[in-house]
Here is the input.
Amino acid sequence: MRLRLLVAGALVCVAFAPLARGSGGAGIRELVVPDEVDYISADGGSIAFDQVIGLDCDAITIWRPLAGTKVRIKPTGFCGESGQSDSVTLAGRRLLWEDGFAANTYSDYSVFTLDTSRSVDAKKAAPDLYDYEHIHDDFAQEDYGATAGPFAGHGSLLVFETSYEPKTGPVQNARLWRIDDRRKTLIRRGLDFVTLSVDRDRIAGSGLHGPVYLLGADGRTLRTFQPPVDPIRVVTLQGSDLVVAGGGRLAILDARLGWVKSVLELPADSRFQDYADGIATFVHGNSIHVLRVPDGKDAVVARLHGKGIEGFTVASEIEPQGLYYTYTTARAGHVVFVPWKTLVRSMA
Here is the structure.
């Protein structure tokens, strides 16, 4: 096993003026909506995001910046009574998400899927795959019940986990499901995942303390890894790279051979987001960063400014086509696309 360690002191920070202004420079495109944006999921040239369209009412929007198209998915009917959409996941033209409402002491949710090439009316065309209720009574210090997640998708493969969290003890009845058209298919039992990633008909997932499992689309174990990261927060699979983040570190493993390619220290209080083709993206405060893994160069893509920025809406995902990032101010939600060539030039 070969190990190459890059420590925090080796990171070179290159700051740039914010790129997300207008839709002109270097092919950068920006979509501005009059609502809060959250729960982003990018696949190739498309990004899906949750958009708050009214009091206690969400809708999902799919934006294809290179094609110049935008599609609004009609809500499933949970508007009102603290309704919200969560865990939005895009794989090709198919969506997977959960919709429901949260009361003072419990949440009531349903998981849906929709082929957006056939319909955009979720209420009529999205089958209800899984229903659950979860208790979260802070006063009684109780948190238990059925749950769904994590969700992951890429290309033609979409997966999600369901489980039961008891009042005490480990998670029970963990099940991994694959979406096959309008139904779910059970492909694995007993693995409690806190993070999932999908790429090229493979699934990577891990519990909080590992190991990381590499599974086939049928749920069969292809390989297991114990990366030098603990606790594990995010796993990202892309090609032959398996990226594991947590505990302030980022480990890149060879998904075929199992050896560790490199380990990098991330800046304190940063949040790793995604990885593609040797470049990772993370959020630090209200800044969007990209990190070139081979030499550890850290570039600030955008320092976000605006009245009333909601920190939880600051997020990014990266695909071989480019970087997507989002943020919400007091006045609008912003979804920005930076083409790959622009990213590469900015890090020269």
